[in-house]
YdcH family protein (Sphingomonas lycopersici), 52 residues
Amino acid sequence: MQTAHLSALEAKHAVLDRRIAEEEHRPMPDTFVLTDLKRQKLRVKEEIASAH
């Protein structure tokens, strides 16, 4: 059974994934925004891994 914290992290990871995809498909993607989103996603992924 997943904890609420782990579920919240996985939801945040999914949101970041969608935001990255949206930014990548814009006509002129902002590389700063993409870098920041990817960095956030990596931090969340590492936190999920440490929670297991």
Residues 4 and 19 are 23 Å apart (CA to CA). The mean pLDDT is 95.
